């Protein structure tokens, strides 16, 4: 059974998603801002991915000081990640980093290095 880890990084203007199956990136996405999504959208997306891979997902939700992560409704009232048959959410505190504008960040879907670091460091919910 494959191990599938999903990192979700909600920001003010977008939501970045990185899906890794057995340490191999299989999906990178930039979705709309968390302020504009349906309350069940994130959970439904994760359930769909779990059904696709036929295994429960390990999910890392990147929390920040702006509170955008709470708009995805993947945490309970105390700030702990939700657990369901389809996924188990762990919360990681996102480090504030300065952004450099380089050509590399302007190509494709952008820079996902900070999300990759979470699974390289072995963050598990």
| Spatial strand arrangement across the major sheet | 3-2-1-4-5
- Contiguous low-pLDDT stretches (5 residues minimum) are 100-107
Q: What is the overall silhouette?
A: globular
CATH class: Alpha Beta
State the distance separating the first and last CA atoms: 18 Å
What multimeric state do the chains show? single chain
How many structural units, i.e. domains? 1
Which structural category fits the helices and strands?
A: alpha/beta
With helices defined by DSSP (H or I, 4 residues minimum), what is the helix count? 3
- In N-to-C order, the SSE pattern is EEEHEEHH
| Main beta sheet strand tally, sense and closure | 5 strands, mixed
Q: What's this model, at a glance?
A:
By secondary structure, the protein is an alpha/beta fold.
Q: How would you explain this protein's 3D organization?
A:
The two termini are 18 Å apart. β2 and β3 form a beta hairpin. The chain has one domain: Nucleotidyltransferase, domain 5. It is of the alpha/beta class. It has a five-stranded mixed β-sheet with strand order 3-2-1-4-5, with helices on both faces. The chain has three helices and five strands; from the N terminus they run βββαββαα. About 6% of the residues have low confidence.
